[in-house]
Amino acid sequence: MERLYCGKTKDLFLWEEDRLLLSFKDSITGTGDRPDPGGNEVVGRVAGKGGASLRLSIHFFELLEEANIPTHYLGRGPSEHTLIVKQARSFGLEVICREKAWGSFLRRYGDHVTRGEPLPSLVEFTLKDDRRGDPPITAEALAALQIASPEESAYMARTARRATALIKGELSLKGLELIDIKYEFGEAEGKILLIDEISGDTMRVLLGDRVLQPHEPASFVCR
Questions:
Q1: Could you give the CA distance from residue 142 to residue 121 in angstroms, rounded to a whole number?
Q2: CATH of the domain at 30
Q3: Cα distance between residue 58 and residue 138, in whole Å
Q4: How far apart are alpha carbons 139 and 145 in whole angstroms?
Q5: Do 115 and 142 fall within a single domain?
Q6: 179 phi and psi, to 5 degrees?
Q7: In this structure, are 39 and 78 located in the same domain?
Q8: How far is CA 127 from the centre of its chain?
Q9: What's the predicted TM-score (pTM) here?
Q10: Which of 62, 86, 110 finishes a domain?
């Protein structure tokens, strides 16, 4: 198979003409030496974490598909820790849905908000640009730069809120509280799809007053 991309937490391979294979890794992202789903550096490895990310992604993609939210998910791959997905053109964005003030939001707006303050399904767009620290961008700027039309931005924001409501509810059944979650969207066959992964690498989750490590939510959700 041809490897198309070597990422921090997974590799991407061409599976068939319009199908891709995601291979999940045991690496963990963060900032400095601190694990954090919002970080852009690999800060360590945890044995089994790739499998945990795969199981969560399958669980949540199937949950969203049942709710008629289109995704690129097709099924489990042929080898360990792999997923088969539709090939899609990425918008090159992270669409973040925040339930509480945390992470980069708190660093930017800490004079106006305290950590953990409710932010009911507040949506932000950021560019996927590690060199510039994934800068926030407005829907108007996305349209001006011809990255996404106003209609496409509105659809992504609306879908992020719908997906978050479902995922938040699913986590709450396991005694977990969602802090924030980031999504990636792409376009295939004239449709906008939720792509990439939905795992502990893309969300912050609280158990009581403790933020779970990226591999931990799977032990509660995928029993």
A1: 20
A2: 3.30.200.20
A3: 31
A4: 10
A5: yes
A6: -90, -55
A7: yes
A8: 14
A9: 0.93
A10: 86
> What are the residues whose beta carbons fall under 8 Å from the beta carbon of 138, sequence distance 6 or more?
125
Q: pLDDT tens-digit profile of 170-180?
A: 999 999 999 99
Whether 184 and 102 share a structural domain: yes
Residues 73 and 132 reside in one and the same domain: no
Tokens of 207: 């158990």
pLDDT along the chain (223 residues), means of 10: 85 91 87 68 82 96 98 95 96 98 95 97 96 95 98 98 98 98 96 97 96 94 87
Q: Is 192 helix (H, G, I), strand (E, B) or coil?
A: strand
8 A C-beta contact, residue 92 and residue 128: yes
Q: Are 95 and 185 in contact (CB under 8 A)?
A: yes
Q: Which tokens sit at 92?
A: 């090159």
pLDDT digits (tens, 9 = 90+) for 36-87: 666 667 767 888 999 999 999 999 999 999 999 999 999 999 988 999 999 9
